[in-house]
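ok so for the tutorial part 2 we go from a plain amino acid sequence to predicted structure tokens. step 1 is just haveing the sequence, like this:
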Amino acid sequence: MAATIDVYSLVFTKADLDAAPKAERLFYLMATGLANEVQMLNKKLAVVVQSADGGQRIVNQANSAFAMMILRILSGRLWEGWGVISGASGWLRSAYEPSMSAVGVAALRDLRAIFNQKGGSFLKRLRDKVAFHSDAEAVEAAYDEMRPDEELGEYMCHTVGNTLHYSAELLHYRTLSHITGEPDHEAAVRLLLTETQRLTPLFNDVINAFVLVFAERYLSAGLARMKDEQETLMVGSFEDQRLSFFSKLPS
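step 2 — the prediction. this is what the tokens look like for a chain of 251 residues:
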């Protein structure tokens, strides 16, 4: 079912950004870029997850692998995002937190507690082993753990974009089990999904709170014009969207 949403444009110039201190300007650009990526990956992940039950084993396995790939990238980006936020922690605490919303300050406090806990977050190990890097030791460890009679295999197709090397995905599941300490790989995936769902709104709250203060300080002219920069868009229902690994690509 189609619906409408109202989008408001905050318009400004490079000269407006130049008025901000360099550290604040760079943080604004990096943090908002992170917010975009996290939002896009979460949307794509949700669509693939709701498309997973295709009624055929091969379809379900392929879509589960598709979702796992997005989840790995999302996890890595969340860890990288914490690096951006923690790197600005000094001036952010003194120059912005007193002016940020209570929701944003609480979210920032929660992120610090999560990522600064003893032992750190398993997201870093996931980023290093299977999200952003190809780690030979992780692959070897997962492979050596397999039984000699364990079934592996690939799904081959003449159509471009529809071959899935499923053996590699099985190794990813085992590596995730090692990283999370959860021996059942389905439970390990659920644990990772729960962690990303816990962290995503916290990142959103922090970045949105920062952006509002930044805009009030340096983009005030654009803020004043926002009420006149509104457009109504027709959008499709999320529940109607599907994204499956197996598909016919444009010729």
